[in-house]
Amino acid sequence: MKKKWMIAAVVAGMTLMGSAGVYAGANLQQIKAYLNHSIGIVVDGTPYALKDGNGKALTPITYGGLTYLPIRSISDALDIPISYDAANYKVRIGSSSTPESPVTSNSRPVNLPKEFPIPTDAIINITMDTDTDGLKKVAFTFTTQETLEMMGFVYSEYARIKRLESGSQIVSATTVKISGLLGGTIPLSISGKASTAKPGYNHFTITWSENSLAGDQLSE
User: Looking at the whole model, is its pTM more than 0.85?
Assistant: First the structure.
């Protein structure tokens, strides 16, 4: 874990993926940087593809002789929780006992559809749980001792029942990746892998949101 914290600390100043509204009022300065397609990422000897919460490929940025990486993707690779404190303009890496820390408990996100399956032993870390102007958005991670194959089957069935469209699915003993549009309108991304921080556990990252046309389709 100390090694992982050192790596995370070196990647200071990296961008956090989120909506444009997150940065409203922030102290921003325009710069000229370069997308560096020559740099590859290797985690514990295995090539790692940088992606955002929706599975879109990301590219390292080079600026001023330094290389910057998307912190959300790196935190997923190192299995380190991360959240963005919009009120205080702070990126929070790892667990903390302060009141501003992400909520870690057995409680599911309030705005997540009630039928979305989460294992009973899940330790949940909520990074987003909002309902703004009737538009619900949820992002969270959890660790569980349920196998990747079992959870992959559960989430594949959920995606089938909810009519996942324009998406892709990979389910195996080592990987779970499901993304697309539920009912053709609701963005969903599920990724699961073995936890490097807690042997015997598996780590899942979930993002779900409504769009302006979907309304409360999944919440009813």
Answer: no
Alpha carbon distances (Å) from 68 to 5, 36, 60, 98, 203: 16, 10, 6, 28, 25
71 φ/ψ angles, rounded to the nearest 5 degrees: -65, -35
Distance between CA atoms of residues 68 and 130, nearest Å: 29
What letter represents residue 181's amino acid?
L
Give φ, ψ of 57 to 5 degrees. -65, 140
Return the closest-CA partner of residue 74 out of 5, 18, 168, 172. Answer: 5
CA distance 13 to 71: 9
CA torsion through residues 66, 53, 81, 128, sign: positive
DSSP 15-81: -----GGGGTT--------EE-TT--EEETTEEE--B-TT--B---EEETTEEE--HHHHHHHHT--
Mean pLDDT of 115-144: 91
Residue-wise pLDDT tens digits, 87-105: 555 777 776 534 444 445 5
Is residue 152 scored above 90 in pLDDT? yes
177 vs 14, more confident: 177
Q: Which residues contact 160 (CB under 8 A, 6 or more apart)?
A: none
User: Residue 204: in which H helix or E strand, if any?
Assistant: strand 202-209
What average pLDDT does the segment 162-179 reach?
Answer: 92
- Under a CB-based contact definition with an 8 Å cutoff, are residues 158 and 167 in contact? no
Predicted confidence at residue 98, as pLDDT, reads 46
